[in-house]
Amino acid sequence: MKILEKNKILTFEEALKQLESAADKLKKDGVTLEEAMKSYEEGIKYYKQCSEILNNAKQKIEIISN
């Protein structure tokens, strides 16, 4: 499944890469609180997208397996 982001469809791999990027930004030295909050919010958004894609895949597998 793909997720829309600002009129662009993201695959699981793309959303995961964005999640990893947001996490990397949080780990950097000298990140301001404002930047950290923005990266955290982005990370949560991509986490939810990845989770939704995985849940949909799990449901499809369960349907096929039964």
Kindly summarize this structure in a few lines:
The chain is mainly alpha-helical and 66 residues long.
What's the helix and strand layout?
Blueprint: E1 3-5, E2 8-10, H1 12-27, H2 33-65
Helix pairs in contact: 1-2
Write a structural description:
There is one protein chain. By secondary structure, the chain is mainly alpha-helical. Helix content is 74%, strand content 9%. It has 2 helices and 2 strands. It has helices at residues 12-27, 33-65, and strands at 3-5, 8-10. A two-stranded antiparallel sheet has the order 1-2. Helix 1 runs antiparallel to helix 2. It is elongated and about 50 Å long.
Distance between the termini: 21 Å
What is the number of helices?
A: 2
- Low confidence ranges: none
Average pLDDT over all residues:
90
Rough outline: elongated
Class based on secondary structure composition and strand pairing: mainly alpha
- How many domains, as an integer? 1
Q: What is the C-alpha radius of gyration, as a whole number of Å?
A: 15 Å
Just name the CATH architecture: Orthogonal Bundle
- The proportion of residues forming helix, as a percent range, comes to over 70%
- The strand order across the widest sheet is 1-2
